[in-house]
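Predicting holo structure, NAP bound.
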Amino acid sequence: MKVLLTGANGQLGHCFKDIFPSDWQLLATDSLQLDITDGLAVNNFVALHRPDAIVNAAAYTAVDKAEDEYELAYKVNAIGPKNLAIAAKKYHAKLVHVSTDYVFDGTKSSPYLENDLTNPVNVYGETKLAGELSVLDNYSSTIVIRTSWVFSEYGNNFVKTMLKLSQTRPELTIIDDQLGCPTYAGDIAKTILEMLMNDIQGGIYHYCGNESTSWFLFGQKIFDIALDQNLLFQVPVISPINSQSFPSKAKRPLYSVMSMDKIKKYNLSGSNWEEQLISCISKIRSI
Ligand SMILES: NC(=O)c1ccc[n+]([C@@H]2O[C@H](COP(=O)([O-])OP(=O)(O)OC[C@H]3O[C@@H](n4cnc5c(N)ncnc54)[C@H](OP(=O)(O)O)[C@@H]3O)[C@@H](O)[C@H]2O)c1
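Done. Tokens:
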């Protein structure tokens, strides 16, 4: 199978390249090689290479910055996916697009289902929702995977931020009233490959960690593992804080746990994030 990967230098992109089957053909592109916001470039690339599948790992992911950069975020998160959907449909390629738990407002108290009402509370979520709608409107066979709290040994994420902060800060406050499911980017990559291999039908699927937690408890786990692996010899004193006492430019949903009942029907299992966190920190240690 020939697969076009966009956003190849992001967390998911890197993990996808790491586990890509050696007997398949990968066309891995970063934003310089293929800017997904350029409709003509996308069309020409797909027309020339004729991939069997397109995996869109490209996105504008700076949640706070997006509040000031609506147009750019919209271009990358909504127009880009639309360009890919149009080209995928025209040249008969499967399309897998990745979205986020931030399409929900977080007011539910039980895991979000794929068809629950969306109501993003920030610009990032709004533009990602527009992306979901644009791919499904233009190519209804698109697989949209909503995921959450992504971490890996690559790029920027909560795990790396905590480890970095621990080097200069003896004390840290971490938000304790936002609940979600951490997800290892390598598990998302593996799931995408399995979905392509099994020719799963289009639509929205939730995929995330199989246990929910708060940022505070996630942070605590990171420091426990880092101590265990001798990555840190001293960890900061951490205290829980609520979202109201920790103002950020973009509002975040308080509850973004997603149900994986739908994807589990295809024998796909959620991200065992606690186990993956141990190996991720050991990879960060070796880097
Ligand atoms: N990170 C999270 O916690 C999280 C949570 C829920 C859902 N998600 C979703 O999961 C997916 C993967 O996220 P991630 O964490 O791997 O993101 P990431 O590390 O921020 O990577 C995104 C990549 O997109 C590329 N990109 C940006 N604009 C582009 C453009 N116009 N054309 C082509 N590529 C472009 C960036 O490349 P340049 O650096 O070259 O611009 C970057 O390498 C995204 O759809 C994201 O919305 C992420």
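The chain is about 40% helix and 15% strand.
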